[in-house]
Design goal:
Elements (H helix, E strand, L loop, with lengths): L1 H16 L12 E9 L8 E13 L9 E14 L16 E13 L3 E12 L5 H12 L14 E17 L5 E12 L2 E14 L18 E16 H4 L16 E13 L2 E10 L9 E11 L1
Antiparallel strand pairs: 1-2, 1-12, 2-3, 3-4, 4-5, 5-6, 6-7, 7-8, 8-9, 9-10, 10-11, 11-12
Length: 307
């Protein structure tokens, strides 16, 4: 996994170096993207330990809005969560439970001149059936020279569904090529996995496409070159987290922990679009999610291919 991420970084650097190359303008109406999150690159292995995401996005020719640039997205994901005490079998020490999640998210979105609306529905499995524990043990034993987390008293199997919605409003403060944009994005989640309200602020600096077709918000419709970075800040009021407290509708798992209801998140993104290729690099930081745990940070790497 580490080698594949290095390849992504190398590809990103090469594409930037070759950025003066010219190509024809095209409209890519579909995209496949592979994303990997991992804290191992920052020399930790705890909490949100890693995630794999396979995304398919497509432009809707006939949408539901008047003048909106509409897209539909499917996302298949596997997420891995561990306590910081990965070599202990004393569950009383755990600051959160071992938990794996595998699920499918479907999302509809519509982009306009200065605002964006997104609605998503997810369904997935938590527990041994997710395969997360087995995958992490294989990964450590095969590819990483370090002790694998023990995976004792994992959250028991349960089914989760969630609804997500967000609205983004953007202001253009300076034009390309040294563009500056500011945005605010309220988010809401309701379901057995997550219940929260969040407000996120974004500042973007560099060359970027219009809102309806920019890599900044995973939009398709233009292959015009983009290269910019984003600063993120978010406050989340958490009412429930099924991967810490167990399933909302009942859970007899042995390791359930108390939630911290105030969560702060910071982020940095570097994004580059060159023709049909999207390259993304991000760093994420969040404060402690459960009582007794600590803050956490991890890396995001993604590559998307348009067609």
């Amino acid at each position: 996994m580490r080698k594949s991420c290095l390849v992504l970084l190398f590809s990103l650097i090469c594409s930037v170096v070759c950025g003066q190359q010219q190509y024809d303008n095209k409209i890519y109406k579909s995209q496949i993207e592979l994303r990997h999150d991992n804290d191992f690159f920052l020399l930790t292995d705890r909490y949100y330990s890693s995630g794999l995401y396979l995304n398919y996005r497509t432009v809707l020719e006939q949408g539901f809005t008047n003048g909106g640039h509409e897209q539909f997205e499917f996302q298949l994901s596997q997420e891995i969560f561990t306590p910081s005490q990965t070599q202990s079998t004393n569950i009383a020490e755990f600051d959160r439970s071992y938990a794996g999640y595998i699920g499918l998210l479907s999302k509809w979105s519509a982009g306009f001149e200065d605002h964006l609306l997104e609605i998503g529905i997810s369904a997935g499995l938590v527990g041994p059936s997710s395969g997360a524990g087995g995958f992490q043990r294989w990964y450590h034993n095969t590819l990483v020279i370090s002790d694998s987390p023990i995976w004792v008293n994992e959250l028991k199997n349960s089914f989760h569904t969630n609804i997500y919605a967000s609205y983004l409003k953007e202001w253009k403060l300076a034009p390309n090529p040294f563009g500056v944009r500011m945005a605010i994005k309220p988010n809401i989640a309701v379901g057995s996995r997550d219940i929260f309200l969040e407000t996120e602020g974004l500042m973007q600096f560099g060359r970027r496409n219009i809102l309806g077709s920019t890599i900044a918000y995973n939009r398709l419709g233009s292959n015009s070159r983009e290269i910019f970075f984003t600063l993120r800040f978010a406050y989340r009021k958490v009412f429930y987290n099924g991967l810490i407290e167990g399933n909302l509708f009942g859970d007899n798992s042995e390791v359930l922990r108390e939630l911290k209801t105030d969560l702060y998140r910071l982020g940095f993104d570097f994004n580059h679009r060159f023709d049909g290729n999207d390259y993304k690099f991000g760093v994420r930081f969040n404060t402690a999610e459960s009582v007794g745990s600590k803050s956490h940070k991890y890396i995001q790497l993604a590559y998307g291919f348009g067609f």
